[in-house]
Design a protein that fits this description.
22% helix; alpha+beta; globular; single chain; 2 helices
């Protein structure tokens, strides 16, 4: 698809459902772990980074209380499919979908 849309980045993300704490109103007995907010955000993160794998995660909490998720990607995927150029796109897509700040980096060798 990226070849078709002349130099635009394409990211596929699955459609996922989040159930809130009072899910019993919807007639469900238990809330599956896959429907929790945290689980859905983790899955979205996996989907966004697409062809590469997540190598590690760090949460940095600023002095003002803001949280920044630093996602370290697999170093062996650095060269393939111009992933290096898509890091800003990954960050923007994740922010738009989850409203959380995230930076994507490759570890320094």
């Amino acid at each position: 698809l990226e070849k078709k849309f002349s130099k635009k980045h394409v990211v596929f993300v699955a459609n996922r459902t989040i159930l809130d704490k009072n899910f019993r109103r919807k007639g469900l007995q238990v809330r599956p772990r896959s429907r929790t907010l945290t689980s859905v955000h983790e899955s979205i993160l996996e989907d966004v980074v697409g062809p590469t794998e997540i190598f590690g995660k760090r949460t940095r909490i600023g002095v003002d209380g803001s949280k920044l998720l630093k996602v370290i990607l697999d170093p062996k995927d650095k060269d393939k499919e111009n992933v290096e150029n898509k890091l800003a796109t990954f960050s923007a897509v994740y922010k738009k979908l989850t409203n959380k700040e995230a930076t994507f980096v490759f570890p320094e060798a």
